[in-house]
Design goal:
By secondary structure, this protein is of the alpha/beta class. The protein has a single domain, classed as Nucleotidyltransferase, domain 5 (2-Layer Sandwich), CATH 3.30.420. The chain has seven helices and six strands; from the N terminus they run βββααβαβαβααα. Strands 4-3-2-1-5-6 form a six-stranded mixed sheet. Helix 6 runs parallel beside helix 7. The two termini are about 15 Å apart.
């Protein structure tokens, strides 16, 4: 069994008309059944509906226009990501909340790609609240704080957030529920 701890970054705006968000970074850490990080995946994605990043998006994520301009489009990046996971591998996708799965579903549908590979997914954010007996789920940085774990890297960068979420995942490895 593989556990794919993933975090996405997507186009975003702080104001203006409602726009469709598109994934601009996929960061993931593969944890094996022996609780060991096996590998990492990190790729920028070139958005197609709104190819110009907002100033707000760049400030929030530190992802630059040059990063996405030289990136492949979602259909190519997701193919590489699925190959990295392994087509014949048993795995669970684990993210901090349900946003990442919903965004993957949306982008897959937009690019006319299947979503069956997303079926084994859990929200570590919601389960963490249950494990810690919190009244409501909290953000990743707050969870790191109550776990006594440092925030490593740049918050709101896919690969760095995936690494940080992995630290929480491994601390509670035997407490997660997969259903």
């Amino acid at each position: 069994m593989k556990y794919i701890i993933l975090d996405l970054e997507a186009t975003c705006w702080d104001s203006g008309p409602k726009r469709i968000n598109e994934i601009i970074e996929i960061g993931a850490v593969c944890i094996n059944a022996q609780q060991k990080p096996e590998d990492e995946f990190n790729a920028f994605v070139r958005p197609v509906l709104n190819p110009q990043l907002s100033e707000f998006c760049t400030e929030l994520t530190s992802i630059t226009q040059a990063d996405v301009d030289k990136a492949e489009t979602f259909d190519r990046v997701i193919k590489r990501f699925r190959e990295w996971i392994g087509f014949d591998t048993e795995y669970w996708l684990c993210s901090w909340g349900f946003y990442d799965r919903k965004q993957l579903e949306q982008d897959c549908r937009m690019h006319k790609m299947g979503i069956e590979w997303l079926r084994n997914h859990i929200s570590l954010k919601h389960q963490h609240a249950k494990i810690k007996q919190l009244s409501r789920p909290m953000g990743m940085s707050g969870a790191l704080h109550i776990e006594g774990l440092p925030l490593i890297g740049t918050h709101h960068r896919g690969i760095d957030d995936a690494r940080n979420i992995s630290a929480i995942f491994m601390k509670h490895f035997h407490e997660w529920e997969y259903k």
